[in-house]
Amino acid sequence: MKAPFRHAVLPLVLAATGCGSAAPPFTESTAQPAGEALHLQGRVNDAASILDFETESRLTAQLQTLEKKTGHQMVVVTVRSLGGEEIANYTRTLANRWGISRKGHDDGVVILVAPNERKVRIAVGYGLEKVLTNAACSDVIQSDMIPRFRAGDFAGGIEAAVASLSAKLS
């Protein structure tokens, strides 16, 4: 059975300054319900097309190193749309469907960015909630991600979050 994910951080709405400008708006027909259309592609799943190849490669290498070092699985996901679903439910459903964590450890982490809705979430498996608390995840979002996102630097915000979370897990 796949590991259940808890709500790590309440959904945070980003300010409108620069946060959706990197990608054009999408219609309802391009929504990607967590339980259906989005498929696990690897450690970085950029369905919103906000990351360049070099960034994806760096992130993949960092996430692979983290998993080899600690056993903890972390994935980065960007979506075009949440399809009207709450980001907490979307992220949890996606994490459970993909089975992000080691069986019996519930130690997976999903960083989800929905740039068009200006939302971000860090979902943490139960096995890591003592290390990656709600406060710690909120701090990563507020300090590492949102300031960069507001400046239009999605790649930098995601890379900073992965670095911060990896440091906490190492």
Automatic annotation (TrEMBL):
DNA repair in keyword set: no
Keywords linked to the UniProt accession: Signal
Cleaved signal peptide residues: 1-22
Domain of life: Bacteria
Keyword Signal recorded: yes
Residue stretches making up the TPM domain: 44-167
Pfam families documented for this protein: TPM_phosphatase
InterPro entries recorded: TPM_dom (IPR007621)
PANTHER family documented for this protein: UPF0603 PROTEIN YGCG
Name by which UniProt lists this protein: TPM domain-containing protein
